[in-house]
Design a protein that fits this description.
Elements (H helix, E strand, L loop, with lengths): L2 E9 L4 E9 L8 E9 L2 H8 L10 E2 L3 E9 L9 E5 L14 E4 L5 E2 L6 H24 L8 E3 L5 H12 L4 E5 L5 H7 L3 E4 L1 H4 L10 E6 L3 H9 L1 E9 L13 H5 L3 E4 L7 H14 L2 H6 L1 E5 L3 H9 L6 E5 L2
Parallel strand pairs: 9-10, 9-12, 10-11, 12-13, 13-14, 15-16
Antiparallel strand pairs: 1-2, 1-4, 3-5, 3-7, 3-16, 5-6, 6-8
Helix pairs in contact: 1-10, 2-3, 2-8
Length: 328
Amino acid sequence: MASFKAIRIDKAEKGTTTTLAQFDETDLMDGDVTVAVEWSTVNYKDGLAITGKSPVVRRFPMIAGVDFAGTVIDSKHAGWKAGDKVISTGWGLGETHLGAYAEKARVKGDWLVRLPSGMTAREAMAVGTAGFTAMLSVLALEKHGLTPKDGAMIVTGAAGGVGSVAVALLSKLGFHVIASTGRPAEADYLRALGASEIIDRNELSAPGKPLAKERWAGGIHSVGSTTLANLLAMTKYGGAIAACGLAAGMDLPSSVAPFILRGVCLLGIDSVMCPIGPRKAAWERIAKDLDHKKLAEMTTEIGLADVLDVAPKILAGQVRGRTVVKIG
């Protein structure tokens, strides 16, 4: 096709404009693999880019979307051939490199991961960056040495994308999962994913003490700010919190007390530029440890045009679980 449908972001006099438009194939950026995109997803970062609420996009025009799954059309990369089923998440897609909300993408072959056996492209995008980030967080906590016998795990933003997958993964691995959410109506949903306890996020959002009563051995945190400070203050001796998001802010109003008095560790999780080795390991674990039925229960499907309506809702905390985008 000489042109294809894509969600295009352009620079405007004030901010940006986002439209569903035709995009010329000759304007695709350099890359050694061309992919027919079949599925994508909506992540928090996609919401920021499409609404222009944060300067996520670094070049214009930009095709939005940080994740895709599809089939290789053409490849000059030794590792890929036409017909291969592939996944791409991060690497600047939708930020510095034309992204995933399009019927076609051209990327570096080194950015791709093979679709795991037994997983469909739709399921891979139900996981997406959010679920991939949750798995990286689980792997970091395991590397720290935490096991179910060490105590409970706290998951913040539990009804969101990262949180939903984190709850499902941790519960399947045998952890007692405490789900923190600002949406009490989602309690049944979270229990169905495997949460043992539900707490209101307000318990963790007010400024607290440098050290508080020990409540959990570790956790997966996608919120930032005061909530993260409280999580650290309530983490048991030798525990760890995997931090992977900033929905409540980039600041961290904490102290060194949890680190030097309880030996608590703060584990930073980056999914965008994660090297290919850990990527492959994470996707292998996702295919093995994420319950497909629970994944289906947390997933909603939309079309490409619907992304424009969903983007502001994900920023407002109105989207539950994962949203897949049917493209081709």
